[in-house]
Amino acid sequence: MRPSGRANDQLRQIILETGFSKHAEGSCLAKFGDTHVLCTATVESTSPRWLKGTGLGWVTAEYGMLPRATNTRTDREAAKGRQSGRTQEIQRLIGRSLRAVVDRKAMGEIQIRLDCDVLQADGGTRTAGITGSWVALHLAFQHLVKIGQLTAIPLTDHVAAISCGLHEERAVLDLDYVEDSAAQADANFVLTGRGGIVEIQATAEERPFEETQFNELLRLARKGIGELVEQQKRAIGG
C-alpha cells in the first residue's frame, strides 16, 4: 500500500480551475493533491528583440515558490538577489514544454509569458506547472481569437507532465513528497496528447535501475498523461 492509500497507477485528485486570476489573459490553478500551482498567461504586444522581423512569436515561463509553500519558510529569491539553479531549470523546462506544441509562426510577433507560482508544495510542482500552464496558454490564445488578433488558436497539441518513480521497489504514478523523498528512482515525463515525447528527466537515487523498470514508468506516465489531457479538455470546455 502506498502511503497515500492510492493504487500504483492512480493519480492524486486533479483539479484545473480556470479564471482564477481576474486580470490575466489566461489563468489556471492546478491542484495535484496538496500541490497547488497558480499559472497565469500574460500577452505582450511584441516578441523579444532578437525575434524582430522573423514573423515568429515566443512563449516563455517563470517559476517561483511562495515562502510558506513548504513546511518551513523559504526566503524569497528576490530578497537574495538571484534565482536558484533549481528555479532556472524548472522555468526553462516549462517554457520548452509549451513551445513544443505552439505554432510560433501562426501566433505572429507577440510574446506570451507564463508565470507559475507555487502556493503549496507536496511534490510534483513542475508537472503541475506544465499541465496548468497549457490551460492558461490556451485561454490566452482563445482571448486573442475573441478580440480578433488571431484567426485560430495556434496550438498543435496538448502537453502535460507527470512524475513516476520506484517506491519500495514498485513503479508508482504521481509521487507526492513522502514518496518522492524516499524513492529509489524518480522521473518526470512531459508528453503530448498524441503521445509524443517532449522531455524525460529520470534519476536513480540509490542504485541504477533496469530498462524494464523504466518501461513500466513510461507505461504509467502515458496512462497518467492521458487522464491529465482529459482534464485539460474539460477545463477549456472542449
TrEMBL record:
GO terms for biological process: rRNA 3'-end processing; rRNA catabolic process; tRNA processing. Keywords: Nucleotidyltransferase, RNA-binding, rRNA processing, Transferase, tRNA processing, tRNA-binding. Its EC number is 2.7.7.56. It catalyses: tRNA(n+1) + phosphate = tRNA(n) + a ribonucleoside 5'-diphosphate. InterPro entries: ExoRNase_PH_dom1, ExoRNase_PH_dom2, ExoRNase_PH_dom2_sf, PNPase/RNase_PH_dom_sf, Ribosomal_Su5_D2-typ_SF, RNase_PH, RNase_PH_bac-type, RNase_PH_CS. The keyword Transferase applies. Phosphate binds at residues 86, 124-126. It comes from the Bacteria. Residues 10-140, 159-224 form the Exoribonuclease phosphorolytic domain. One of its GO terms (molecular function) is tRNA nucleotidyltransferase activity. Homohexameric ring arranged as a trimer of dimers. Belongs to the RNase PH family. Phosphorolytic 3'-5' exoribonuclease that plays an important role in tRNA 3'-end maturation. Removes nucleotide residues following the 3'-CCA terminus of tRNAs; can also add nucleotides to the ends of RNA molecules by using nucleoside diphosphates as substrates, but this may not be physiologically important. Probably plays a role in initiation of 16S rRNA degradation (leading to ribosome degradation) during starvation. This is Ribonuclease PH.
